[in-house]
Amino acid sequence: MFEITVEESFAAGHALRGYKGKCENVHGHNYKVRVTLEGKVLDSIGLLYDFHDLRKIVRDLIQALDHKFMNEVPPFDVENPSAENMAKYFYHGLKKHLAAPAAAGARPDGIGARVQQVTVFETEATTATYSE
Prior knowledge:
The protein is of the alpha+beta class. It has helices spanning 51-63, 83-99, and strands at residues 2-14, 27-39, 114-121, 127-130.
């Protein structure tokens, strides 16, 4: 099994609904998102997935949240913008993109990379990871 990982960062604010403590108030973080793809087969030039293409997908997903108050941005206008829910958001966004027939890196034989896990760093010492 092969794995590749990329990381991207962004800044955003949020307030945790229903939380009793300081985090119920509006505050922000400099987040880091770590994405790992896995697969058994490399393409004809020896790549599981192009790092450049994967970074672009992650950046596109980040763009909706970067320098925003996440409580006002779908799906976090309804779902609590916890690090756990953010990891799930990125996971499913990537999974959807990789499943699209025209996705960069997709191969006609249907064999390719899949999302293994996504980790969101709320701080250097606190993370949440989502996988299926």
